[in-house]
């Protein structure tokens, strides 16, 4: 028996050595026009998904779905602020922060990997992935050679490189290529900055090829591309696009780094649903011309918590919805769509004779939840921390807070009624006079003033309860501090001497909530309800969508997990709740609403809409 055991150990060791040798045999380089895998031209067919937007328990299923659609590569943004939430505090190990596990699954599923690690990524993600703690520096400049920004970025790259290094193709891993910054030609022209980032990755042992990604215009490509790095086009949909990139940065491959099967949605808009026929024509062009490309995104996932970003275009401030469904081929809950099936059929038609795509993985089951009775539990007013005293109000960042809410409170002296102006409100606020709700302020609508009514109270109390929504993630307005960004005036008189209450509404804050034990009439109410799940009932292991269409505006938590924001202006009325966040027995829902004081039931549905 001992001889057999020893023989088996030897065999396993030899097989391990053989597997390691096989693993290490691949090479990936940039040819003058093609990507070269093992010295042969290689067409990258990539599907983008983001580990931070997907529960770790679902990573493998989503990766397999990309493979079953016809992809040979996974592309992934990594979000700096997700892995360094506070200065010097890094997380690469817990839950879906564990990117090494994501990389392992990619390799186990026999897929290649492209990484887009920032430091800036856009991605409709809070501040484009840059940590908001940097905004506590009053005169900070981002995405350039500002030494404060670069010191933080280089620390992050050093930490991240250590996580990435074992998975490089040069070390037998799946990682082919890494992006330098993102769409820099849409923002700036600091070539020193781009070259420095490339140098820092190299100094940290990242020896795979690099690429840039920019829109297919002359000025963007001139400002954003780098000699020696492949050129990504967002998107590359014609021979003219590829020809322009070849002319501006010759001698390297050009690919479509973002081919868009869907699009993003802001609050107050209709769901974005681009025409699939244009997408199919574009993919056919790319396949016929053997151009590499990346679906942005093949699966979007969810902006859980406070991670959704915002835009600042022609319409002003445009915050993104919580869902990142994106009308992608694989929907938010991980199911196939008609778009997926059409792309699978198209990509499958280009396979060599006798080759077939792998079967589509089984979907994650879904459940409906019957009406969950909710009741008022407590209010923000009964859970205030000790205030900070400020002569004039400062931003969230000025008080060391990144997300959530802040209450600004002052006593009125002199003017006690009239036109109240907040310069400026970032991003939404409810206004109270002597505890009575007066109205709202809304950056999205350009609404930063309100009329305060006359009062008989000798020293009226003004309260401005401010919600920070997503920080801008694209173009020139990235420095998007939250709260009251300058001052508050009443009839032109600056109001002084404020009590300021930090309310991050993080997991610990929700855990510590105390019941009010009284009738709750002042808006700012937390509602609580419970629902039961049982293994015997067959409803464990299933996802659901929490429907809060009976509520106005706020946040939802299930078992302490922040599902994200809701707002009755739509289009989103349901929030995705993945099964790993549910448990057998009693499950708790907490709904915080900025406006409602009356409880309404919530439901669980199987779909986003």
Tell me what the structure shows.
The chain has 609 residues and is of the alpha+beta class. It has three domains: 39-348, TIM Barrel, CATH 3.20.20.80; 369-377 and 513-605, Sandwich (Jelly Rolls), CATH 2.60.120.260; 384-503, Galactose-binding domain-like (Jelly Rolls, Sandwich). Helices cover 20% and strands 28% of the residues. It has eleven helices and 34 strands. An eight-stranded parallel β-barrel has the order 4-5-8-9-10-11-12-13, surrounded by five helices. Strands 18-27-19-24-21-22 form a six-stranded antiparallel sheet, with no helix packed on it. The protein is globular, with a radius of gyration of 26 Å. The N and C termini lie far apart (61 Å).
Strand arrangement, largest sheet? 4-5-8-9-10-11-12-13
The average pLDDT value, as a whole number, equals 95
Q: Which structural class do you get from the secondary structure elements?
A: alpha+beta
* Principal-axis shape: globular
Assign the CATH class of the largest domain. Answer: Alpha Beta
Number of domains: 3
Fraction of residues in H or I helices: 10-25%
What share of residues are in beta strands? 25-35%
Structure described in brief:
The protein is α+β, with helices and mostly antiparallel strands.
């Amino acid at each position: 028996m001992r001889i057999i055991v020893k023989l088996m150990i030897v065999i396993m060791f030899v097989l391990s050595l053989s597997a390691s040798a096989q693993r290490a045999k691949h090479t990936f380089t940039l040819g003058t026009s093609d990507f070269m895998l093992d010295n042969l031209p290689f067409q990258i067919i990539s599907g983008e998904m983001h580990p931070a937007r997907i529960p770790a328990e679902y990573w493998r299923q989503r990766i397999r779905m990309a493979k079953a659609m016809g992809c040979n590569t996974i592309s992934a943004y990594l979000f700096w602020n997700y892995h360094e939430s506070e200065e010097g505090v890094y997380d690469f190990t817990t839950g879906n922060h564990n990117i090494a596990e994501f990389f392992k699954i990619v390799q186990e599923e026999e897929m290649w990997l492209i990484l887009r690690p920032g430091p800036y990524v856009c991605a409709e993600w809070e501040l484009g992935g840059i940590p908001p703690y940097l905004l506590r520096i009053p005169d900070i400049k981002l995405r350039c050679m500002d030494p404060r920004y670069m010191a933080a970025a280089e620390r992050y790259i050093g930490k991240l490189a250590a996580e990435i290094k074992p998975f490089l193709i040069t070390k037998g891993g799946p990682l082919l290529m890494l992006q330098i910054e993102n769409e820099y030609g849409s923002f700036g022209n600091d070539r020193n900055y781009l070259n420095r980032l490339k140098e820092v990755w190299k100094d940290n042992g990242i020896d795979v090829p690099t690429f840039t990604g920019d829109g297919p215009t002359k000025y963007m490509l001139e400002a954003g591309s780098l000699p020696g790095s492949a050129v990504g086009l967002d998107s590359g949909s014609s021979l003219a696009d590829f020809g322009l990139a070849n002319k501006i940065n010759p001698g390297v491959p050009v690919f479509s780094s973002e081919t868009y099967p869907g699009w993003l949605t802001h609050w107050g808009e209709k769901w974005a649903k681009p025409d699939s026929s244009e997408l199919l024509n574009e993919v056919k062009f790319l396949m016929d011309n053997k151009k590499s490309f990346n679906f942005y995104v093949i699966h979007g996932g969810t902006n859980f918590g406070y991670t959704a970003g915002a835009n600042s275009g022609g319409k002003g401030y445009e915050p993104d919805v919580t869902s990142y469904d994106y009308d992608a081929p694989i929907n938010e809950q991980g199911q196939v769509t008609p778009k997926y099936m059409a792309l699978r059929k198209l990509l499958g038609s280009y396979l060599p004779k006798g080759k077939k795509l792998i079967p589509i993985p089984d979907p994650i089951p879904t459940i409906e939840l019957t009406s969950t009775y909710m009741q008022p539990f407590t209010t923000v007013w009964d859970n205030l921390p000790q205030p900070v005293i400020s002569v004039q109000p400062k931003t969230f960042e000025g008080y060391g807070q990144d997300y959530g809410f802040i209450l600004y409170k002052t006593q009125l002296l002199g003017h006690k009624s009239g036109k109240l102006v907040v310069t400026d409100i970032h991003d939404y606020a409810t206004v109270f006079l002597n505890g009575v709700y007066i109205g709202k302020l809304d950056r999205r609508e350009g609404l930063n003033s309100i009329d305060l009514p006359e009062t008989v109270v000798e020293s009226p109390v003004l309260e401005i309860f401010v919600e920070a929504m997503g920080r801008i993630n694209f173009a020139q307005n990235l420095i998007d501090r939250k709260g009251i960004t300058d001052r508050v005036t009443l009839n032109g008189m600056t109001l002084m001497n404020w009590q300021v209450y930090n309310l991050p509404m993080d997991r610990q804050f929700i855990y510590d909530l105390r019941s009010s034990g009284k009738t709750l009439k002042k808006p700012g109410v937390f509602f609580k309800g419970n629902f039961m799940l049982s293994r015997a009932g067959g409803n464990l292991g299933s996802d659901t969508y929490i429907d809060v269409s009976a509520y106005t505006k706020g946040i939802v938590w299930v078992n302490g997990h922040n599902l994200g924001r809701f707002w009755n202006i739509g289009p989103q009325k349901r929030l995705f709740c993945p099964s790993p966040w549910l448990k057998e027995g009693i499950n708790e829902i907490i709904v915080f609403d900025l406006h409602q004081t009356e409880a309404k039931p919530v439901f669980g549905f199987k779909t986003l809409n």
